[in-house]
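May I ask for a sample protein chain and its fold as tokens?
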Amino acid sequence: MGKSKARKKMKPSHAAKNSMVKEKKPNQAGDAGLRVTDMDMYLFGQGTHYSIYEKLGAHEMTENGKKGIYFAVWAPKAKEVFLIGSFNGWNETSHPMKKLGEQGIYDIFAEEAHVGDLYKFLIISERGEKLYKADPFANSAELRPGTASKIADINTYVWGDKAWIEKRQKRDCLTAPMAVYEVHPGSWKKHIYRDDSDEDKFYNYRELAESLAEYVQEMGFTHVELMGIAEHPFDGSWGYQVTGYYAPTSRYGTPEDFMYLVDYLHKKGIGVILDWVPAHFPRDAHGLSEFDGSCVFEYADKRKGEHPDWGTKIFDYGKNEVKNFLIANTLFWVEKFHVDALRVDAVASMLYLDYGKQDGEWVANEYGGNKNLEAIEFFKHLNSVFLGRNKGAMMIAEESTAWPMVTGRPEDDGLGFSLKWNMGWMHDFLDYMKLDPYFRKDNHNRMTFSMTYAYSENYILVLSHDEVVHLKCSMFNKMPGSYMEEKLANLKAGYAFMFGHPGKKLLFMGQEFGQEREWSEKRELDWFLLAEPVHQQLQAFVKELLALYNKKAAMYELDTQPEGFEWINADDNYRSIYSFIRRAKDGKNNLLFICNFTPVAREDYRVGVPEDTTYRLILDSDETRFGGTGCSHQKTYRAKKQECDNREYSFAYELPAFGVAVFEF
């Protein structure tokens, strides 16, 4: 995994140049329709203007034969609003904006402004304060530490992913394979320069597209989930404190560059998921916080409008215009940038009024409870519109509590998400895997408990970035053992169990090859580790798991139905061995998993089986290419009429220490 040492930015490939831009055709009927109308204001006030981003913000247009930029902003309590920017020398009075109605939308047409110019809105509050605000609907932003918005035209890119979009529309996420590679774009790889300067260390979106797609394809992941794409001021927030909801971060290039990334991944058969953060936003002076001197986007009552632990503001989910801002934003990413799914961050913090708060720091709902009724209705509205308009797209909830029916239908009083992160499974799994194998027998149920609720939601099993930072250790170093080979053996068994367990899969970057250090956004992954056999072997094993996962329908198509899973023995706690079956919908090519979580080999391990048939070994963790002993195991096993595990038939297998065996029947 080499690093580029060139000091100049990498030039786009020939293919990249050919898919960059197209000539924007003039609107023969004129551009008057781009201006905000009474109907636009009415729909925005109702919370149902789902393309409001085409009116508010900055948009190139021609008026009375003159080409310029049309600006519109919502600042309901402003006394006055002025447009300032690089095109007028940041003059604070030369471009006053006109108030269109009582709703508080201001607009102006500036023929002096051009695509690429920087700008802000100077808002005079009711108290006479001067507020210099970035555009909430801007499609691009100045590179941090600059905070201005940047005029962009996102309508010229020529997309080449029609075949992917058509295929996505026919895809059922519940019955299709889904193995997600979670990626922080700024630290997956970095350029290394001789003077070790910070200049241009990031891969730009186009470089990332080609490098990431090649790796993800080679490994066998079906999707990538990109952290921190929406514009944010602080690298260390990883993109979870957003100031520019409608702008791909300028750290890695332009909006067109980001379109190229999505387009390229689609052409390579890889889906794209973005993290989306509607739970809160930062207090940065140029952002959404107290946008016109009043609480425009946040709840006015601090007990509802602020997160004490995070130091951030909470959106007002009861205000129609705010709901419209957020719902339109989800449509913006999927319809304008062609992303396939949004992973909604911190859903629990939105659902509970007392989340992270002490007594006196929150206010109950109208019934005296702690549920945020406005957020609940927001989710139902959001998911109904998003999924209704974009067949095959997904909304994924990161929800950490036992809130019921997160993936239930809104008409049945569910929230309407497509999938939910299984945080309960993740905590139990990690607690078990970190144990010394001697103590695992006393914690056996940590690995079986998840099956008691596995079908209550549509789950995705996650080992995300949150589990490998802040003194939590990498996945590799969470494993017990005083030497590398033992950690490798433990992690192989753990990953095999994860892939066999019902639910879609997500793995954070670097954990597939045994990154040893905790993740940091300040440096790239330790790709140099792949020069060492142990890390090559883990990577090869994960690659084999992914190949098996994509090839064998039994591993995914009945994830949400009880018929897809059956324990053979869930109670072998003394030996810390788990055996279970994954079934295909057609009853053919079913899989038997056996996972040994101790360093004790079982030379004649007998397992009960459901049928009098032949069982073919298709995955053996003991192969030398996976770091095993290389002992030769026969490839087929015929069941005998011998009772075991309360079953009439069984067969015996030489199960290695920390061994994993998958049989097809």
